[in-house]
Write a structure and sequence with these properties.
Blueprint: H1 2-15, H2 19-55, H3 62-111, H4 114-119, H5 122-164, H6 166-173, H7 175-213, H8 215-220, H9 224-250, H10 252-276, H11 282-323, E1 345-352, E2 361-368, E3 373-377, H12 384-391, E4 399-404, E5 407-408, H13 414-419, E6 421-424, H14 435-440, H15 448-457, H16 461-466, H17 484-497, E7 502-506, H18 514-528, E8 532-536, E9 548-553, E10 556-561, H19 563-569, H20 572-585
Parallel strand pairs: 3-8, 3-9, 6-7, 7-8
Antiparallel strand pairs: 1-2, 1-4, 4-5, 9-10
Helix pairs in contact: 1-11, 2-3, 2-5, 2-11, 3-5, 5-6, 5-7, 5-11, 6-10, 7-9, 7-10, 7-11, 9-11, 10-11, 15-17, 17-18
């Protein structure tokens, strides 16, 4: 409960910039409630007047009644207008504050280290940005002002009852602590299930996102039945937690209503007695019954909204969990980039491990000269991709240093380090926009001429011009309206337009046929010309011309040299090369 209250307090920091609209919403709400508190008393005046006329044998004073009805019409109009304005102001506050919250989450995601996304499903992160923020937004929009109105309404209704008849008001006041005790007990039991419900919803989103992304592979291996079973487990867990949360919180309404109905009976009996004693008028008893409703109805409203509030509470905790995640460590002193970067790279006694108990790279040392092409080869799990992650500062070294032109990258701003690199990955990523904009992603300030020039360098210009709308053709959300090889060429063009000092090619030709491999290889040769390049390749035939080949195994360089030198050694590389050559021949 304390954690939820702390999270809700932090939500109000997003409301603070819109305090004028927030205050106006409250002001309109207070006017609405005051008017609402006056209505029962005014409504009871005609009844009292008619009862007096009949008691005294007089004709009914219709002039008085018409005046009261006119007053009721004016008061009712004020009620409707102020209630509407209260909702308008509150909507403005909620929508703008939630916009700011989503902006902060988006900015936070961009500041999180790569390791966070290695440990968390994308669907789970997406659920916090969408579902959890929506839950908080709905609670603030639908519940917050309603609960404040309910609490103020109860205070005003009780004040009016105390003025009319203090003894009768005590009967109604008794229901409030009873309702609070009931509500607090049920909330304490159900809150953990609301938290579990939001967690399960995040798991479900993660599962769906993961399986839709790999839908073709799922179908290929006939895993539909197993996937349905796995989905059922997650879905049933969500249903189980949702049912418990709703069922337990659902007890609140009938129990609170039971106390309210008891107060109705008590007021009716005691009120009749006071009328007979002459201590209360009939119209005031009528007003009292309406005031009882003005107390019980808000109490019921609060209990109805309790499930929404508890969902929002759980969602708020999850939102601030991601906002409180440790960010990429900023350097105390950032050495500015030199005006000219040559591209000399050195690894000096580098050690690194994802888990301190399981060392991966130890005392790794190598020096790469500007303009050299360095191939990194080795079996799966040897540490090839980890080496690139360290070079890009996706992770920082545990010990030792990586230097570019003699400058330790840990003393440089991360964005400056990464601005030196162009990268072509094995899994080509395109986003939902035109082909031209996908290429321009490497340099957002590039002109149309530069986009076309980069496409020509990457051997993809001809393909683009054969497509409908050419450079304006839209890549769909899945990126599957172009082939895998064409995607790869487009990502090479993206790397070209960024004009990097150092190029990284991570398995760039591993998933294409021989013809496309040749085309991609020619494009890469053009791009690598004059640049320091790191190439990770499973197809060893593609790196024969590399200036330096690093052979890695279990995080260590076990051999290094050019192709001819390593073949002549008849060591690990020679066995790896020959086994691959034989497999390709077979």
């Amino acid at each position: 409960m304390k954690k939820s209250l702390k999270a809700f307090k932090r939500i109000f920091t997003y409301i603070a910039p819109y305090k004028i609209s927030f205050i106006m919403a409250f002001l309109m709400a207070i006017i609405t409630l005051v008017v609402n508190a006056v209505l029962p008393y005014v409504t009871g005046l005609p009844t009292t007047k008619v009862a007096e006329n009949l008691k005294n044998g007089e004709t009914v004073d219709f002039d008085y009644i018409w005046k009261i009805l006119l007053i009721l019409l004016i008061v009712g109009s004020i009620y409707c207008i102020t209630n509407f304005l209260s909702q308008v102001f509150m909507t403005n506050v909620v929508q703008h504050s939630m916009r700011d919250l989503r902006r902060d989450i988006d900015q936070k995601i961009n500041r999180l280290p790569v390791s966070y996304f290695d440990k968390n499903q994308f669907g789970e992160v997406l659920s916090r940005v969408t579902n959890d923020v929506d839950a908080v937004s709905n609670a603030l929009q639908q519940s917050f002002i309603s609960i404040v109105n309910a609490l103020l309404g109860i205070v005003l209704a009780i004040s009016a009852m105390l003025i009319l008849n203090a003894k009768l008001a005590i009967i109604v006041i008794i229901i409030i602590p009873l309702s609070i005790i009931i509500s607090k007990t049920i909330i304490s039991i159900s809150q953990k299930y609301f938290k579990a419900q939001q967690d399960s919803l995040g798991d479900l989103n993660g599962f769906v996102q993961e399986n839709l992304t790999g839908y073709n592979v799922l179908k290929l291996y006939g895993r539909e039945e197993q996937t349905i079973k796995d989905f059922s487990k997650v879905n049933n867990r969500l249903a189980h937690n949702g049912f418990r949360a709703a069922a337990i919180s659902g007890l609140m309404m009938p129990l609170v209503n039971l106390t309210a109905y008891s107060s109705y009976i008590g007021v009716a009996v005691a009120g009749s007695y006071f009328i007979m004693q002459g201590a209360l008028t009939l119209g005031n008893l009528q007003a009292f019954i309406q005031y009882v409703w003005q107390v019980s109805q808000p109490m019921g409203q609060i209990t109805q909204l309790s499930s929404v509030i508890q969902s929002a509470s759980a969602a708020t905790e999850r939102i601030f969990e991601i906002l409180d995640e440790p960010e990429e460590i900023l350097n105390e002193v950032d050495i500015p980039l030199p005006e000219t970067i040559h591209g000399d790279v050195s690894f000096e006694n580098v050690s690194f491990s994802y888990d301190p108990k399981k060392p991966l790279i130890q005392n790794f040392t190598v020096e790469v000269k500007r303009g050299q092409t360095v191939a990194v080869v080795g079996p799966t799990g040897a540490g090839k991709t980890t080496l690139i992650n360290l070079l890009m500062r996706f992770y920082d070294v545990t010990d030792g240093a990586i230097k570019i032109d003699g400058i330790d990258t840990r003393k440089m701003n991360r964005s400056d380090v990464r601005s030196l690199f162009g990268m072509v990955l094995q899994d080509a990523w395109l986003y939902n926009d035109s082909i031209g904009e996908n290429i321009r992603f490497g340099n957002l300030d590039a002109t149309d001429y530069e986009v076309v020039d980069a496409a020509k360098t990457a051997n993809v210009d001809h393909f683009i011009r054969t497509m409908p709308d050419g450079y304006n053709m839209q890549i769909n959300e899945e990126g599957d309206n172009v082939s895998l090889g064409q995607k790869q060429l487009l990502t090479i063009a993206r790397a070209v337009i960024s004009d990097p000092k150092i190029l990284i090619l991570d398995e760039a030709t591993s998933s294409v046929d021989t013809r496309l491999e040749s085309l991609i290889q020619k494009a890469m040769d053009k791009v690598m010309e004059g640049r320091t390049s790191f190439v990770i390749a499973h197809r060893l035939s593609t790196i024969r011309n590399a200036d330096l080949i690093l052979v890695m195994d279990q995080g260590q360089i076990i051999e290094q040299g050019n192709h001819e030198t390593l073949i002549a050694k008849k060591g690990f590389y020679e066995k790896l090369y020959n086994s691959q050559f034989q497999n390709e021949a077979e």
